[in-house]
Amino acid sequence: MDFLSDFLTKFGAQLQSPTLGFLLGGIVIAALGSQLAIPDAIYKFIVFMLLIKVGLKGGIAIRESNLTEMLLPALFAAAIGILIVLIASYTLAKLPGIRATDALATGGLFGAVSGSTLAAGITVLDAQGIEYEAWAGALYPFMDIPALVTAIVLASIYTSKQKRDKYHKNEEYIRTETVAAGGYASEQIVPAGGYPTIDQRGTAGGYPGERGGSSGGSSSQPGDAPSQRVKIWPIVKESLQGSALSALLLGIALGLITRPESVVESFYEPLFRGLLSILMLIMGMEAWSRINELRKVAQWYALYAAVAPLLHGFIGFGLGMVAHYATGFTPGGVALLAVIAASSSDISGPPTLRAGIPSANPSAYIGASTAVGTPVAIAIGIPLFVGLSQVMM
Question: What is the pTM of this model?
Answer without folding.
Answer: 0.72
